[in-house]
Amino acid sequence: MSIEAGSKLQGKVTGITHFGAFVELPGGSTGLVHISEVADHYVKDINELLKVGDEVTVKVVNVEKDGKIGLSIRKAVDRPEGESRPPRPHPRSGNNRGGGKSRPAPSFEDKMSRFLKDSEERLSTIKRQTESKRGGRGAKRG
Prior knowledge:
Blueprint: E1 8-17, E2 20-24, E3 30-34, E4 55-63, E5 69-72, H1 108-134
Parallel strand pairs: 3-5
Antiparallel strand pairs: 1-2, 1-4, 2-3, 4-5
């Protein structure tokens, strides 16, 4: 059986790694479902969603010349028209609930001055700690 990109197949999970799951397809070939293609949400631990031996429906994303098969579980799920992934929160808004006034983005100069201030504070803390380990400023060596 030839496997082509875009086709949906039933498969069986044969192995799980930290980066994805290996799925055996009809005909004995094996493909990889990358962890980012398992679900529509962020997946920290793939073991929470899949176990070895699970039957899954996958969509063939690509077939490499060297025979590697890229698969997706989340693309194999048919969604009704108009339904898509949940909206992602905007990075500067903190939460995506709205209701409050949004602050303007800090300028480059503001970010740079805050960075310099933080750096100077960290350096002075490190110097103080280092000097106390050596016995202070006026300590004589040896």
